[in-house]
């Protein structure tokens, strides 16, 4: 009989490696048996499997009888262990790296990634040959490696081996994001990028061989171990000792309803969210993710301790602009999420800071920069997740029927509602109820929603608009720089970074004096209403601007004329007010007069966009208050794209919690130019108008005219408690035509706000 050309070719290939036919023959026979005479697999990579097997045989000769016995003894658990325990065998790999053994398609990587993450050489010992074998398929390993060092080591089992042993196939259930179920008890694995491994169930028999089951050495890093039937909710624990307030330790839990679509989206998206764990969270004892797939959920969704938070971009996905009002009814009171305690929960459970959808409108548009996802609150108002009373990990059960609508995955860390976006942490506390702060996305800087024309470009900054020749700290210079001149003849700030008293007092007086109002001929606010019965302009305040130095200036970053751009530096806390104003913001430290507290940050909308939103989502008219950037409208010709306002219901910073106080508020808003020379877009900075003691609530006068019901937002019943309250007492001095917060005379203003000068 003519020799089988395939056998001859195999002998030749091995002869090239210096392996004698006599050694090839028995191993080849075994391989043919193992591969069910599939020559393709044997021929692959220039007979790599054959060569490997021969080397193995050489190194670990096992008498055939013993081998058979061993095969019988080895149960599946032992098999797993042996595979895990196999030492790495670079020696073999080195041999195979000879040029003659390089795969023609270069599937075996010898590059840095394989050096950093050496592949485990197959152990073709007696107990790993047919029936038990663990064989390294280099091509599978190559397929698994994303080139970025994702994989530390691979051990490849023949699938048949595992299934034949009667063990459940340990196919990693790879979701598009790489999530895998661990419910089968398989060691947690860190999987490479999503296309790397198909679930075995989807593979053809051929690809099962070429693409065998792969185990990846677990890393020490957090593993997303959430099961499919867990709800995708995130939570962050308070620091054990953080907060002067004991209620911070009474962590409360809230819950979003989540419809199937969104839930599964959330599920997948959350998996990759580890990088959203910000550094300050590292201080916290733990961060917990609650995973879920309500679709598959039978009775309840379990909230399991885990380690990741949704990515910012993914949280954005879950958030929809448009205010928190639509969704408030079932879930919030005074803008906060209701959470009820569940006494049956073991006290080993963790405080959960879960958002409610208050703050969000599932149908409102989102800023262009962020994705879209629909989110709703529970529509029955029942509690969904239990508040828990200490820091230990445990489970919280969420009834399945409460996971029916969209979920919001935004979470407020009790230690830092800013999620690390600010230089200082901003904690939140609720001493009164179990409520949570409303859900919103913390943004440290304004974001354009869609149409607002905000053009920031260096080319638009002329020499007169910056101090390009300055050096160091402008404020210390004896001469005013160009920026100071734009502020109005001198620096607004002292060397200590406070507002100069004269400047501040002037601002206070201006803000209270109706004489400083101007009236537009063609008011963008009225124009935005686009109806036949537009009213005349109701008046806007002329204001004093601050011009800060910026990138095109020659001074350094520490220049004293750069205050607002440095962001929040004082110690603030969000808290639930006791007067029924909802949440408020307070200082935890004494603040001097003229100190910068924070900027009012939100979505930059055109006034028209705001009006459209308020028509489309009428319930949004509650709970939020848009701020017109109208200080420069007097210059006239303000186009629709330039008539801007800030809206912080869904995207905002700590300032969104600052409540209104009529007239004698302790903060004052001052327009600040930073990046650009024009005043149609500016930053609205809040400074202390007097000294403020630690624990005092921060307030500012929104400038509301409580008699004007034609506003884009619903008026609230003012509970500011000021004796000058415009809502409670309508004294004649506070109801001047066109006025919002103005009083009648400079003398009165001086008395009220304690200014030294007028
Ligand atoms: C910018 S938010 C302030 C934070 C808000 N309290 C919360 O819980 O989210 C403005 C809203 O707070 C409430 N608010 C602010 N000042 C108030 C006051 N003086 N009296 C009653 N409610 C007030 C109103 O509902 C208003 O629409």
Automatic annotation (TrEMBL):
Q: Which Pfam families match?
A: SET, WIYLD
Q: Which GO cellular component terms, listed alphabetically, does the Swiss-Prot or TrEMBL entry include? A: chromosome; nucleus
**Coiled-coil positions:** none
Domain SET: residue ranges: 570-703
Q: Which InterPro entries match?
A: Pre-SET_dom, SET_dom, SET_dom_sf, SUVR4/1/2, WIYLD_dom_sf, WIYLD_domain
Task: Return the Basic and acidic residues bias intervals.
Answer: 66-76, 158-167
Q: Where in the cell is it found?
A: Chromosome
Give the record's keywords alphabetically: Chromosome
Q: Where is the composition biased (Polar residues)?
A: 101-112, 282-295
Keyword check for Iron-sulfur, yes or no.
Answer: no
Q: What name has this protein been given in UniProt?
A: Histone-lysine N-methyltransferase
Source organism phylogeny? Eukaryota, Viridiplantae, Streptophyta, Embryophyta, Tracheophyta
């Amino acid at each position: 009989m003519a020799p089988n050309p395939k056998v001859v070719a195999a002998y030749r290939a091995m002869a090239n490696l210096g392996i004698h036919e006599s050694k090839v023959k028995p191993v080849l026979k075994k391989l043919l048996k193992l591969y069910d005479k599939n020559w393709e697999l044997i021929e692959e990579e220039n007979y790599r499997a054959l060569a490997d097997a021969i080397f193995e045989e050489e190194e670990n000769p096992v008498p055939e009888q013993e081998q058979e016995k061993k095969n019988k003894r080895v149960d599946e658990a032992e098999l797993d262990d042996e595979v895990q325990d196999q030492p790495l065998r670079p020696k073999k790999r080195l041999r195979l790296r000879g040029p003659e053994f390089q795969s023609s398609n270069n599937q075996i990587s010898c590059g840095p990634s394989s050096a950093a993450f050496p592949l485990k050489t197959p152990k073709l010992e007696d107990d790993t040959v047919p029936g038990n074998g663990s064989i390294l398929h280099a091509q599978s390993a190559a397929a698994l490696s994303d080139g970025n060092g994702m994989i530390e080591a691979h051990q490849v089992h023949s699938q048949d081996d595992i299934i034949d042993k009667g063990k459940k196939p340990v196919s990693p259930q790879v979701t598009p994001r790489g999530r895998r179920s661990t419910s089968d008890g398989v060691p947690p694995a860190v999987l490479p990028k999503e296309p790397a491994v198909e679930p075995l169930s989807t593979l053809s028999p051929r690809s099962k061989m070429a693409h065998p089951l792969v185990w990846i050495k677990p890393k020490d890093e957090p593993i997303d171990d959430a099961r499919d039937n867990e709800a995708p909710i995130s939570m962050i624990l308070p620091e054990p000792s953080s907060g002067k307030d004991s209620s911070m330790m009474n962590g409360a839990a809230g819950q979003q309803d989540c419809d199937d679509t969104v839930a599964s989206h959330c599920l997948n998206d959350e998996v990759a969210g580890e990088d959203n764990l910000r550094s300050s969270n590292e201080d916290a004892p733990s961060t917990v993710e609650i995973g879920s797939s309500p679709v598959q959920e039978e009775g309840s969704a379990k909230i399991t301790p885990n380690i990741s938070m949704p990515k910012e971009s993914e949280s954005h996905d879950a958030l929809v602009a448009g205010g928190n009002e639509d969704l408030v009814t079932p879930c919030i009171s005074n803008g906060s999420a209701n959470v009820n305690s569940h006494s049956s929960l073991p006290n080993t459970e963790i405080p959960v800071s879960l958002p409610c959808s208050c703050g969000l409108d599932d149908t409102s548009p989102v800023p262009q920069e962020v994705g879209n996802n629909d989110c709703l609150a529970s529509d029955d108002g029942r509690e969904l997740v239990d508040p828990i009373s200490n820091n230990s990990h445990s489970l919280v059960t969420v009834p399945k029927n409460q996971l029916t609508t969209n979920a919001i995955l935004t979470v407020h860390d009790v230690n830092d509602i800013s999620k690390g976006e600010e230089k200082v942490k901003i904690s939140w506390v609720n001493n009164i109820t179990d409520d949570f702060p409303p859900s919103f996305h913390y943004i440290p800087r304004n974001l354009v929603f869609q149409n607002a024309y905000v053009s920031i470009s260096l080319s638009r900054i002329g020499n007169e608009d910056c101090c390009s020749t300055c050096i160091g700290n402008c404020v210390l210079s004896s001469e005013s720089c160009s920026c100071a001149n734009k502020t109005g003849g001198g620096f607004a700030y002292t060397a200590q970074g406070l507002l100069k008293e004269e400047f501040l007092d002037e601002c206070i007086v201006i803000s209270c004096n109706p004489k400083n109002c101007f009236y537009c001929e063609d008011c963008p606010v009225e124009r935005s209403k686009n109806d036949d019965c537009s009213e005349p302009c109701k008046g806007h305040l002329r204001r004093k601007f601050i011009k800060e130095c910026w990138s095109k200036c020659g001074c350094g970053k520490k220049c004293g004329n750069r205050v607002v751009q440095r962001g929040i530096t004082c110690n603030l806390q969000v808290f639930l007010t006791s007067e029924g104003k909802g949440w408020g913001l307070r200082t935890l430290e004494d603040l001097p007069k003229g100190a910068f507290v924070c900027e009012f940050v939100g979505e930059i909308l055109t006034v028209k966009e705001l009006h459209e939103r308020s028509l489309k989502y009428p319930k949004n008219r509650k709970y939020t208050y848009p701020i017109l950037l109208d200080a420069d409208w007097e210059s006239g010709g303000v186009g629709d794209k330039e008539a801007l306002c800030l809206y912080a219901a869904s995207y905002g910073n700590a300032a969104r919690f600052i409540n209104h106080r009529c007239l004698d508020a302790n903060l004052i808003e001052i327009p600040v130019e930073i990046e650009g020379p024009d005043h149609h877009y500016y930053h609205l900075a809040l400074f202390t108008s007097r000294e403020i003691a630690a624990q005092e609530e921060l307030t500012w006068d929104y400038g509301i005219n409580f008699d004007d019901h034609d506003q884009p937002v619903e008026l609230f019943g003012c509970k500011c408690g000021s004796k000058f309250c415009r809502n409670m007492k309508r004294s004649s001095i506070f109801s001047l035509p066109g006025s919002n917060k103005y009083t009648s005379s400079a003398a009165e203003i001086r008395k009220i706000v304690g200014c030294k000068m007028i």
